[in-house]
Amino acid sequence: MRAPAHNNKPGFPGHSFLLSAMILTVLLISTGCDSSDSETGCKTLFNDGWKFQLGDIEKAMQPDYDDRDWRALELPHDWAIEGKFSADYSSGTGYLPGGIGWYRKTFGLPRNFSDKTIYLMFDGAYQNTEVWVNGKYMGKRPYGYISFYYDITDALLPGKTNVIAVRLDHTNVADSRWYTGNGIYRNVWMIAPGKVHVKPWGTYVTTPEVDDESAVVQVEVDLVNGTDEDITVDLVNEVFGPGGERINGTTTRASIIAGEEMVAAARMDVPEPARWSPESPSMYQVVTTVKSGKETLDKFTTGFGIRTIRFDPDKGFFCNGKPYTLKGICLHHDFGPLGAARHPNSSYMVLKKLKEAGANAIRTSHNPEDPYFLAMLDTMGFFVQGEAFDEWRHGKKKWIQGWNVGREEGKEGLDVYYGTGGYSDFFDAWAERDIKDMVRRDRNHPSMIMWSIGNEIDYPNDPYADPSDSFWEPGKPEPPELLEIASDLTRWVKELDTTRFVTAALANMPLANRVGYVEVLDIVGYNYQEKLYAEDHAAFPERVIYGSENGDSREAWEAVRDNAFISAQFLWTGIDYHGEAGRFPRHSAGAGIMDMCGFEKPVYYERKSWWTEAPMIKAIVFPAERGGRGGFRWPAMHWSFGVSAAAGSRDAETLSAGGGQSTSAATGQPSSDASGPSSSSEIGQTADQGVTGGQSAVQEVTGPELIVGAYSNCDEAELFLNGESLGRRNLSDNDFRERFWRLAFEPGEMKITGYRDGKQVCEDILVTAGEFEALELQSFEEFVQGDGRDIAHVTIQAVDANGVLVPEADAEIVFEVSGGGTLRAVGSGDLSSLESYQGNARRLYNGRAMVIVQSDGSKKDIVLSAAHGDVSQSLRIPVR
Fold it and tell me: What is the DSSP letter of 578?
């Protein structure tokens, strides 16, 4: 057993301190009154005490409906991730169920709330969400990713019992190209300011003038007069620095007509500003107080950052005058075992690992993200591309039986092999409202640098078809409509924010150029079109070009690294997500550099070797027999090929797995050699040569013949097998083959060391594992808050007598949680496993699994026990 991990590393505070700061930032950036001032009310998390029932229920919106038999739960909640995988569902959404679900909440409201305006805010619910309060219909919001709120004041009964009912309809499970989740999967809030107050998402903070000596902070405040009388108020705006110190303030007199709203503005100077940047993500606050005489009517706090940004068509991206290459990661919104009901701790774990791999930018693929997640990106120092939509007026193909399965059927395959319903069903009615709400909500985040109005809307024949193309399909919408819609979306964004850049992720640049789609964009994102960078830069010298979605090949990275005019690469993708799957039972595309549980794949370390400066090296191993049949991108990271492998009884597919890590099955990736050699003979031309002293490193092949390589940012690497040097390799040139040695498997220790300027600066050691004899448990979190909500991620590993990971181990492990916690979810990263995420057992995959435990609010330490037969282990996680 290992003690809980200590997370205090340079640049990353301990998780509890950081997450507390992030939660506070959410409260500051989001709409709400001052939570410390009970006189004016506050923004209250409204996640407790809900009941849930799956299925459509005719009278569930009525206050007197009997819901005693419904399931009691706390939000956020995703009922899809609780369901069973089935081929009867859609591959696009990961073969998980949809359906109709109802939520109800009964609560009391103090009588003194009669002088408040009450808002009910949903950060996100999927989808077609309808809300009733005490039987009164509040409205419907179709888009499952957008935040929305209702003024429920007139429907409430202060001093009495109140009932909220929510219906969600995800009957069309094939409505998305990736996993959406079902239910109220983000936070719900009650906001209770006075009758005269700041409107939800009603502040807009900009810094129009910034230099080293000073910055101008401009604040626009949308004020609402909810009374039946005209009123004049004093609007006090104060700026507080990163340390909480008051810096400046100003008071503005504002007169508001009864029942109306108005925007009031103020300007303040900040001397010697601490600028927000990835290296120093300094956050300021504007505290807005609405006063009538000595009475405080509302108090509202907005977090913001002071920084400048610009793109240059020749030199790339600059923040505060400093050039940055945007080392970006695309992320979907789910986290493996938790689905769409992702927890902040899970997000922090993923983002921390991405930051350590050198990433400095996130693309919210392909929809508005959770407010807490954006606040986390602010405080961790990521740049952000906020994305609105994956489709517009016309639907894309959402594959049902597997990615591209039935493609040849054309129109005859509709509703059998693919569906086209989705956001397009309500785009015309809701697009303006949705994109404006996204911008209003998120425009104060300093991390946000660009707004994407759409992803691959121009994809060939899906849905737009160009008659000039050889693969044109008649009856498809015509491309000129792209310009019309893009113009509207861009205009709507700029009506609310002109301080950031409008962009789109384009998949068909020749078409986009022909119809003028790109002309309405400030900067132009190229998806997988690196071959056009130089050509388009020459043809359109004023255009800002960047990679909005890219594969993880070496060539794709070099296209950014070697061209200053290309400012960004957004890698597809950071972590495996459900959906965009192949044939059942695979339920993920497996495109991540981390798996479903956040375990790093080999390609993670390759990325780290390209994106970071601190010395690092990672050993990778794969069988020479795989040769040109593909698969050099995802080798093994162990030295345990076993007796049966040494005897040659396994085929090449099994050898590459090393007992479970096959090149395609373990990672879920399409086989591709884009980032490595194209054949074993190509490796052999260098792997049998280049040893220091000019001697061959190849031994007599008695076990499986293997290729050993290094992912490293060092100048040189040296390989040792059981203490014997097999020579050094020069890693400083661009010939990727020089990173490989060819040798026969020999049990023991394989070590690879990295050198800079002739000095050893790092190493990686792989040791052959023995039999599975013990379990090792390690928590990512140091401790858990005893609030009933906090969670910990615990890795379970099968190890031998010496504590070495046994990668072949696939035993079923049974879990039990005692003390002050409950079992929240289990997972393993296996993209074909049909095991329940809510079960108390899980088969190991590549020797590992993950258990997520949650505080039960009792303040007792959590004890997790894991067992397989006579092998057992437990871990105590402190609760504070």
Answer: B
